[in-house]
């Protein structure tokens, strides 16, 4: 189960980099294909195929995922750059679909006491904000 933040894509707020000609369709397909290729190459039976979902929507709209059916959910590079409704929706939904003792792991260039470190995360955060 992989969460992909698509709110910005739906709102057409993702700006392509110079000389890039990407559409919402290309970006979403890239995520799906990349994750699926990795799953197949490594023969990962314990990783389900990616699904398209909008975390700002109720978990009941997350592609039929059943309550308490996930052991682990990984959320990467979403919370620091998306609207608060996405983070709220993520925590509300994950609270319903994680098994007891299940884990939500998040990653991103988060700020602590107002500072982002190391410099690679500062640069990455700037690059993401430039795309908005």
Keywords:
DUF938; disordered N terminus; 132 residues; SAM-dependent_MTases_sf; 4 helices; globular; Methyltransferase-like 26; two-stranded antiparallel ribbon
The Rg value, from CA coordinates, equals: 16 Å
Main sheet, how many strands, which sense, barrel? 2 strands, parallel
**End-to-end gap:** 26 Å
Identify the overall geometry: globular
Q: With helices defined by DSSP (H or I, 4 residues minimum), what is the helix count?
A: 4
Approximately what portion of the residues adopt beta-strand conformation? 15-25%
Arrangement of strands in the largest sheet: 1-2
> What pattern of helices and strands is seen along the backbone?
HHEHEEEH
How many strands appear in the DSSP assignment? Answer: 4
Count of all domains: 1
Average residue pLDDT: 76
Helical fraction equals 25-40%
Low-confidence stretches: 1-27
Protein name: Methyltransferase-like 26
Family: Belongs to the UPF0585 family.
InterPro entries: DUF938, SAM-dependent_MTases_sf
């Amino acid at each position: 189960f992989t969460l992909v933040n698509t709110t910005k894509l739906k709102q057409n707020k993702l700006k392509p980099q110079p000389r890039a000609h990407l559409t919402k369709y290309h970006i979403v397909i890239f995520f799906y294909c990349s994750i699926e290729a990795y799953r197949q190459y490594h023969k990962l039976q314990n990783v389900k195929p990616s699904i398209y979902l909008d975390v700002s929507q109720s978990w009941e709209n997350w592609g039929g995922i059943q309550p308490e059916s996930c052991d682990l959910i990984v959320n990467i590079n979403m919370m620091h750059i998306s609207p608060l409704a996405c983070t709220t929706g993520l925590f509300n939904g994950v609270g319903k679909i994680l098994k007891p003792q299940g884990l939500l792991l998040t990653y991103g260039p988060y700020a602590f006491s107002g500072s982002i470190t190391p410099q690679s995360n500062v640069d990455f955060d700037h690059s993401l904000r430039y795309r908005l």
